[in-house]
């Protein structure tokens, strides 16, 4: 079965955003072109990893002799987007895997998000073969290099805006009630 591809070749907007309060936030990738709006849920760590990898790809391209794709060193101020997610935020699927690519013919970063594969059922998980997994739908977004820098910056800022991390144990600090559990190496 051919998956439904939610394709955005030059979206009006592509952002990572959150719904909820720190400690109980849900992260979303959201793409919009005209009236087409697609939101997919992902983990905070996936958001951070995607931002890191986008910056790594852009840094490598920028380092090419003469910066042939005009990759900016940092997010262009005129493209920054601090607005909340577009409404309604309706989760199409939860992201399982993502891929990141580069299209030199259009000078665009290509991001593909596939749904979480498998099942909650333990017996079904034992029989699950990822090679046979065919997703029902896919989000595919193509964005220019300046927009990619802006996307990565926003994602890093959102990830960093969560609960503070304890410098000793690495766990999130929950208000004034944090009980630090030091790793064995500190005992």
From TrEMBL:
Pfam families hit by this protein: DUF3090
Domain of life: Bacteria
InterPro entries: DUF3090 (IPR021441)
NCBIfam families with a match to the protein in the record: conserved hypothetical protein
Stated name of the protein: DUF3090 domain-containing protein
Organism field: Occultella aeris
